[in-house]
Design a protein that fits this description.
With about 270 residues, this protein is α/β, with parallel strands linked by helices. The protein has 2 domains: about 50 residues, no CATH class; about 190 residues, Vaccinia Virus protein VP39 (Rossmann fold, 3-Layer(aba) Sandwich). It is about 45% helix and about 25% strand. The chain is built from 12 helices and 9 strands. Strand 4, helix 10 and strand 5 form a beta-alpha-beta unit. The chain is globular, with a radius of gyration of 19 Å. It comes from Aurantimonas marianensis. Pfam families: Methyltransf_23. One of its GO terms (biological process) is methylation.
């Protein structure tokens, strides 16, 4: 991080965290707003923390700076934390549902938010060419060392989709654990439709809460600073961008503080 007063940001952020943990949410939100004033790119995720406390509108995304910082910090221990400690099983669920609904094989596969390559490992035998992209340089380094992907890129999912040449398309596009860092989904779904061949498959996971919790909203930031989406919003936006939803089934994404984190596994086909 550079270009701002890091000491001032650290002081404001630690103060905000302390206030939030003590239950002084209004004061914590003010301290997080100080963080945003110091660091407008929001490497610490102040905006999603304000929204998680219900004291601000949910942003359109968690922000590139925050997501890259978060995953760079956890790259080395990522699989131990996510798989062994939190019971994250989306890659295996994704592979199983694709095998049942749209087994392939696939000539070209794009793994958005590839992380350390868990989905890539699950789908490698079905892909002639497998490409991965992630915001975190640390994650990409781990993927490179595994030798799973044919090509790897550092980039943000929506922007990466927009940067491809018009004639460069894929047969399968997957995005496991990407939507919890995005609010509005039009950019992602539009980009996916543009990069998929007609009849191409789009598989992704998302997280959700009870219908009453949304209070009429399409998406919101939950208590763990992750975005949650209503099932009806997912299906509506997929249809608006030219997809037929083949399956939108409930899953347990992982366990958070011992409690199951509910979500959906979605498989859609571009018309």
């Amino acid at each position: 991080m550079s270009g701002f007063d890091e000491a001032a940001l650290t002081e404001a952020y630690e103060r905000a965290l302390s206030l939030e943990k003590s239950g002084a949410h209004a004061a914590a939100a003010e301290a997080y707003r100080e963080c945003l004033a110091i660091d407008p790119e929001d490497h610490g995720g102040a905006a999603v923390r304000i929204a998680a406390m219900g004291l601000g509108e949910a942003p359109e995304s968690a922000g590139e700076a925050y997501v890259a910082t978060l995953f760079d910090q956890h790259a080395e221990a990522f699989e131990d934390i996510l798989v062994r400690q939190l019971g994250y099983g989306v890659p295996g669920l994704m592979a199983a549902r694709l095998a049942a609904i749209a087994p392939g094989p696939y000539r070209r596969v794009l793994d958005l938010g590839c992380g350390t390559g868990l989905v890539g490992e699950a789908l490698r035998d079905r892909a002639t060419t497998l490409i991965g992209v992630d915001l975190s340089e640390g994650m990409i380094e781990t993927c490179f060392d595994k030798g799973i992907y044919d090509d790897l890129y550092i980039g943000e999912a929506v922007g990466f989709l927009a940067d491809f040449d018009d004639d460069e398309v894929f047969d399968l596009l997957v995005a496991a654990d990407v939507l919890p860092y995005l609010g509005g989904l039009d950019g992602l779904f539009s980009g996916a439709a543009a990069r998929l061949a007609p009849g191409g498959i789009f598989g992704f996971s998302t997280e959700t809460l009870s219908e009453a919790t949304f209070a009429g909203r399409d998406f919101m930031v939950g208590p763990h600073q992750r975005f949650h989406h209503r099932e009806a919003y997912l299906v509506d936006r997929l249809a608006a961008h030219g997809f037929d939803c083949l399956e939108c089934g409930p899953i347990v994404v992982r366990f958070q503080e011992g409690q199951p984190a509910p979500g959906h596994l979605v498989v859609a086909r571009r018309r």
